[in-house]
Design goal:
11 helices, single chain, mainly alpha, two-stranded antiparallel ribbon, binds heme C, 3 domains, Cytochrome Bc1 Complex, Chain D, domain 2
């Protein structure tokens, strides 16, 4: 102990180490710190005995309690799945009306429908089902093929103009320009008339000339006032919602050489319980009839 002297400036004991005249002071860690450290060591030893801790070559130390987070997860999954199965069985057996009549089933179906929608439908209809040009918005109350639960269910199940499904929704608009049913001037006039019934800015004399052509060629499918006809999938033209564009040029292009939307039939890929849930979800988005 003779070499441990007291440093004269700080009054602290030195460790006795000295380099080039610089002496090391002995300032130990505070007691509370050391004690906390010992407690963590003891806790760690206890943990290693009770729980899985050390990796071995092909296994690991399982610990006295034999705990495994994977086993716990699978146990939870089994419980969750059996709870889900109860609902899925009920949805399978229930009609669409019965599902929406039961708050519990409705809630389960909407949640299931939402996740199936995210996986299968968002590439075309958008994350919020808001649609895109050529892909209809499913949140509004404007339905090309009908907005009742049953209509939506059939649309999803059999698709639209999907040639591999016999029951697919099918219809077509004649190519009035390409097939020379109407000439360019007539098409321009009818397009002006379509804009007039939609309340859009238009050339009034052209629209008046186009009225007769509209009644003769278009009203059978789109209705006398452009209200649309769901049996034929003919969209309403008198409203503010446009599938292929509302400019005079876009309307004239549709009359000349129409575009036709195609949606696959989902009965091939999804089971009926999921299609029912999708119908309930889409119907719940706000525009269901
Ligand atoms: C045989 C039925 C039928 C006739 C006749 C018909 N259409 Fe259509 N029309 C449709 C269908 C079906 C669609 C929807 C195409 C789709 O869903 O892709 C459509 C779509 C349209 C659209 C696009 C609507 C939008 O929201 O972008 C316009 C515009 C239109 N028709 C105008 C006319 C005009 C004008 C005439 C008369 C010259 C006419 N149609 C005659 C069936 C018809
Ligand atoms: C490959 C693109 C595509 C995918 C994926 C798709 N759809 Fe569609 N969907 C369309 C098109 C295009 C139309 C409009 C067809 C037409 O009438 O012209 C449509 C129309 C609809 C309609 C009818 C809307 C109305 O106004 O009547 C519903 C309902 C619908 N889709 C639901 C779904 C659901 C649910 C899914 C997922 C299971 C889905 N769609 C996936 C392209 C798609």
């Amino acid at each position: 102990m003779a070499d441990k002297e007291i440093d004269e400036f700080s009054g602290t004991e030195t460790t006795g180490h000295e380099w080039d005249g610089i002496k090391e002071l002995n300032t130990p860690m505070p007691r509370w710190w050391i004690n906390t450290f010992y407690i963590t060591v003891i806790w760690a030893i206890g943990y290693m005995i009770l729980y899985p801790a050390w990796p071995l070559i092909s296994d690991y130390t399982h610990g006295y309690l034999g705990y495994s987070s994977r086993a716990e997860l699978s146990a939870e999954m089994v419980v969750a799945r059996s709870e889900q199965q109860v609902f899925l069985d009920q949805i399978n057996a229930a009609s669409l009306e019965e599902i929406t009549a039961s708050p519990e089933l409705q809630q389960f179906a909407t949640a299931g429908g939402r996740s199936a929608f995210l996986v299968n439908c968002t590439p075309c209809h958008g994350l919020g089902a808001q649609g895109a040009p050529g892909y209809p918005n499913l949140n509004d109350d404007d339905w090309i093929w009908g907005g009742t639960l049953e209509d939506i269910y059939l649309t999803i199940k059999h698709g639209i103009r999907f040639t591999e499904d016999w029951d697919t929704r099918d219809s077509g608009m004649p190519a009035f320009g390409r097939d020379e049913i109407l000439d360019r001037a007539e098409i321009t006039d009818i397009a002006a008339h379509v804009r007039s019934i939609a309340g859009l800015e238009h050339d009034a004399s052209a629209a008046a000339r186009g009225a007769l052509g509209f009644a003769d060629n278009c009203a059978a499918c789109h209705g006398d006032n452009g209200e649309g006809l769901q049996e034929l999938g003919a969209p309403a033209l008198g409203d503010a919602i446009w599938f292929y564009g509302k400019s005079a040029e876009e309307i004239a292009a549709q009359i000349t050489n129409p575009k036709h939307g195609v949606m696959p039939a989902w009965a091939e890929r999804l089971d009926d319980t999921i299609i029912k849930q999708l119908a309930v979800y889409v119907h719940s988005l706000g525009g269901g009839e």
